[in-house]
Amino acid sequence: MFLQSNVLYTITAGMEGWELFRNSLLPMLSGAIQYTIPLTLISFAGGLLLALLTAMMRLAKSRFIQLPAVVYVSAIRGTPLLVQLFIIFYGLPNIGLNIDPFPSAAIAFILNVGAYASEIIRASVLSIPKGQWEAAYTIGMSRGTALRRIILPQSARVSVPPLSNTFISLVKDTSLASLVLVTELFRKAQEIAARTYDFLLLYVEAALIYWVICFLLSLVQTVIERRLDRYVAK
User: Fold this and answer.
1) Digit-coded pLDDT (tens) for 57-110
2) What span, in angstroms and rounded, lies between the C-alpha atoms of 112 and 176?
3) How big is the CA angle at 109 (ends 106 and 223), to the nearest 5 degrees?
4) Residue 7, number of CB atoms within 10 A of its CB
5) What is the Cα–Cα distance from 55 to 42, expressed in whole angstroms?
6) What domain range is 208 assigned to?
7) Membrane-spanning regions, if any (predicted)?
């Protein structure tokens, strides 16, 4: 009798768990579509532009131009992303700058991506043989023209794999936006868990959704890398 009761309890709990899993899937996907994915795209696009500017400053011959970029990269790489997020959302209001949750998260992620991606771009540019520069100068190109027409197109292929990894990592990092009240995927999981007290199931479900998104992005990354490899001499 006791064994039968345990079996019935297990079956009932399993059915309730599946029902909760199914009912919470749509709200989590909604959070991913409305906030997680847009936040990722906006942050990566803005961060990439900032990274390109920062990398060009790091590569400049003038120490005066290099210094702000060096300080910026050092500050971002030397502090946790969560601290940066809290400074922008909770700290800036102390000096009268009140920023809504979504823009706060976007600014923090843009600054973070910009610092790390700038090092990727800088390393990619430096990986191009000096002979490419010399050939460009030989036909009368200026440094800026050579960089724009010769060096950056080649370094773009080199930087695709690490930049793709940065993008995939950013998808996961957006979960930190839940701490500044952005109702993205993980925040939805937290809200549902707070009502149902089934934290393990809901957090595992959120993890599975992140995993699926990142897996699909990794497939896209593989396709892009293969297409770019076709233009490399074997």
Assistant:
1) 999 888 999 999 999 999 999 999 999 999 999 999 999 999 999 999 999 999
2) 13
3) 105
4) 10
5) 20
6) 2-229
7) 32-57, 69-90, 102-121, 200-224
| Range with lowest mean pLDDT among 6-15, 27-36, 43-52 | 6-15
Q: Is 181 within the bounds of a domain?
A: yes
3 state DSSP class of 231? coil
Question: Are 155 and 124 within 8 A, CB to CB?
Answer: yes
Contact criterion met (CB below 8 Å) for 132 and 150:
yes
CA–CA separation, 94 vs 98, rounded Å?
9
Distance in Å from the first CA to the final CA of the chain: 72
Structure-token pair, residue 139? 């036909």
Q: Domain of 39: which CATH number? A: 1.10.3720.10
The 8-class DSSP code of residue 88 comes to: I
Query: How many helices (H) and strands (E) are present in the chain, helices listed first?
Result: 10, 0
Instruction: Give residue 13's identity as a one-letter amino acid code.
Output: A
CA distance 42 to 113: 11
